[in-house]
Amino acid sequence: MFLRALMILSFLLVPQLGFAAPQQSFSDFIQSFERRAVAEGVSRDFYRRVTKGLTPDPKIKVAQASQPEFERPIWDYIDKRVSAAKIKQGQQKYRANKAIFDRVSAQYGVDPYVLAAIWGIETNYGTIMSHDVYFKPVLRSLFSLVHQRRGRVEADAKELLLVLKLMQAGKMPVDQKGSWAGAMGHLQIMPTAYSKLAVDFDGDGKIDVHNSLADALASSARWLLSLGYVPGEDWGMEVELPNGFDYRLAGRDQLRTVGFFAQRGVQRVAGRQFGDLDQPVFLYVPAGKNGPKFLMGRNYLAFKGYNFADSYALTVAHLTDRLKGGGPFANDWPRDATFLNRQQRVALQEKLKQLGYYRGGVDGRLGPISQKALRAWQSDAGLVVDGFATKQVFDVLMAQ
């Protein structure tokens, strides 16, 4: 009862916090949000000046509904971002800027190839930053996001308030451009991270993650460290599981040591040997029993802090290795598996919730919480407990 009352109270307080009610027009929302902005330290005159004539970006809603890391199979996402052309381009860009990468890595201890991989994935090594279709006015984007009240409305509001404060203080230009979600610069740092961690690494007297690669790399290195990145530690490794392995040991909530899994017959691919047996890892099975499997370390979790999608984090990890000269994954993806569309993914979450296995939000995004719920149901149903939502698994679930 207390939780329910708290949720109702939070809902009733939303207008007072300056959020838009669903029926509010954009101009009415701008006016209502002014109260919160002023209460947070933004001057009324500045707020009205930068919001005068501001219009919503109609493409924001389309962008947030079609994020490829959630709408495509993980192998499609990785294939597009770790192509031969992308690897070659990244190696060339790395060599051309090696002095900067070396300085940043020496200062902060972050693997320079990790930073190069993020650079490649986020802005195609800086080549898309001049395209208006990708880089939009941050202020307009964030106002549009908060007005639309997507699932992370409070987080979006905090990003917006920080941007307003940074602009008011002269620490960010009013016409600053970034992604539709508000991320900025070569490596797409979010305003919350920018406000605390961005650094003038090139020493020109200003922080500019958009025009200075040195500032962008150093700022994102500091962000990764704040997210738990451990210098000198690998992101993880691809592994083989023995026959009869208990897939219930998979998932981020099953953090163990490398030695724990080695004792249960888990081996590295291609005859490679494990390093530190005490390294904390978890088993990640992104595409079921027939796809690649991984033991993931703390640096992989730092990648997820940068962007929560597992497809993104695994792409950073894999592109890092490929830029170093490494090869593809030893095991191929189950490309013949039928990927569920969004309507089916929503139905799957609703069914798991109805059966008492799932307590998360119904959004069609099958992340770790949904996979854990699916594994619990698979276990009770006598199926392979790999958490992979194929059409075959979906049909069995929906028949219950």
UniProtKB/TrEMBL annotation:
MF terms from GO for this chain are: peptidoglycan lytic transglycosylase activity
Q: Which residues form the Transglycosylase SLT domain?
A: 26-321
Record-level GO BP terms: peptidoglycan catabolic process
Q: Work out whether the entry's keyword set contains Secreted.
A: no
- Alphabetized InterPro entries for the sequence: Lysozyme-like_dom_sf, MltB-like, MltB_2, Peptidoglycan-bd-like, PGBD-like_sf, PGBDSf, SLT_2
Question: Where do the Peptidoglycan binding-like domain residues begin and end?
Answer: 342-397
Organism domain of life: Bacteria
For this UniProt record, give its keywords in alphabetical order, as a comma-separated list.
Signal
Renumbered to this chain, the signal peptide range is 1-20
NCBIfam families tied to this protein = MltB_2
What this protein is called in its record is: Membrane-bound lytic murein transglycosylase
Source organism of this protein record: Maritalea myrionectae
